Amino acid sequence: MNSVGHINHGLWAHPRDESHRFNELNYWIDLAKTLERGLFDGLFIADITGTYDVYQNGIDLTLRESIQLPSHDPATLVSAMASVTQNLGFGVTVNLSYETPYQFARRFGSLDHLTQGRIGWNIVTGYLDSAERLIGQKGLKDHDLRYEQAEEFIELCYKFWEGSWENDAVLKDKQKRIFTDPSKVHSIQHHGRFYQSEGVFQVSPSPQRTPVLFQAGASPRGLAFSTRHAECVFIGGDQPEKIKQQVNKIRELAIQQGRQPEDVKIFVGITVVTAETDLLAQQKLAEYIRYASPEAGLAHYSSSVGIDLSKYADDEAIPYQQTNSIASVNHKFKEKKITPNDLKAQHILGGRYPLIVGSGETVAEQLIQLMDETGIDGFNLTRTVAPESHHDFIDFVIPELQQRGRFKTEYHQGSLRNKIFKNGDHLTAQHPAAHFRCQNPKQSKAQQFDLSKQSA
Ligand SMILES: Cc1cc2nc3c(=O)[nH]c(=O)nc-3n(C[C@H](O)[C@H](O)[C@H](O)COP(=O)(O)O)c2cc1C
């Protein structure tokens, strides 16, 4: 995240942690170079609009522990990092609830050009009441209604990215004085429940057109959305059996949506602490734990579920309460008895992602086993002490994975989409976005935008 702390709270206070430098461009430039050295597919940047103010009904702890506050706009980082890398992808989170589809599509279309097709969008709808107050809205929309709005938002984005300009519209022909062929640029029309738009998109076709689509919906409505649209799905979970169930469900739902199971890549979030040997890794973990803040993790969790967890005694079962925040996380209180002590034990490094600790060999073996047992495609690796944890993973774990033939030894060519799916730069014909393509110019004749009749 473009912030000090992200998921593993408290580690910012570790003497070797440099995440307090997040507002310096060099911090990100170095990070991008590091990740490309390690042949990472991409850097995923999470984001929230709003602040974590549910725990203890305020933001004191949030400010003291820097729990994603301050946090800055993630998209601003991308051009600088793209300029020092050739292959690293950038998955940027944008909450669509506070964007207009047009301005958003334009920003990401522009980034797809500047990164030469290395941009992805993590589609989120938000879960914080504090955001609603900041934006001047009346309160968080109903969880499922947010996904309804997301469906229309993304459909309109597809129209802009895929439907307004034909592939060969831009000629740049100096002799004939035709920069763009007017017959190949089309006005889009959209009159929906949430959005209205008419006119041509301002961005010419970019390498991928639609950015690589990431999503993490885990509720029934969220899953319906992610399996229809997403190419990369993030899931949580610490038990292989449960992860496998999620994977099977996602692939089944994708098939029901007319897609192929392999059209969706599934990544599980993990935290890794690694060193030269198992013993040194355990010692490193013990050292990290001294700085971690499980309570800050609880404050983050409170906002995720929309329930002030400070109100419950350490050994008291937290009752399920219906909220409009992250439904799938909140439902855990329905499924089993969970106390604040249970949550704190889960947050020993300040975060709730499963923790793998050991030498490069140990970690590589465990990652491979998890992949083989569950059918996931890869991992979303959280940072702990930054940038140390990135260097450790690259130096200790990646070579072990490579030796076992389970990690690439060089980048595949082309756009981020082509690197991930090895099937070209654009979304496939089975994807819902394909429906909005202007494949047949005659068919959209009525919608053509006659540039000669426009004044400016
Ligand atoms: C790995 C991962 C990363 C996520 N990143 C963000 C994020 O950056 N911003 C955000 O608002 N939500 C984020 N979420 C939450 C999801 O958008 C989603 O709300 C959550 O997974 C629950 O799904 P549901 O909304 O269908 O209940 C993330 C979830 C996961 C598993």
Automatic annotation (TrEMBL):
Residue stretches in coiled coil: none
SUPFAM superfamilies referenced in this protein's UniProt entry, alphabetically: Bacterial luciferase-like
Entry's family note: Belongs to the NtaA/SnaA/DszA monooxygenase family.
NCBIfam families assigned to the protein according to its UniProt record, in alphabetical order: FMN_nitrolo (TIGR03860)
Protein name per Swiss-Prot or TrEMBL: LLM class flavin-dependent oxidoreductase
Chain ranges passing through the membrane: none
This protein's record includes keyword Oxidoreductase: yes
Any Pfam family hit: Bac_luciferase
Alphabetical keyword list: Flavoprotein, FMN, Monooxygenase, Oxidoreductase
Residues annotated as domain Luciferase-like: 19-377
Residues given in the record as FMN binding sites: 47, 93, 143, 147, 219
Sample GO molecular function, one term: monooxygenase activity
InterPro entries for this protein: Diverse_substr_monoxygenases, Luciferase-like_dom, Luciferase-like_sf, NTA_MOA
Keyword Oxidoreductase: yes
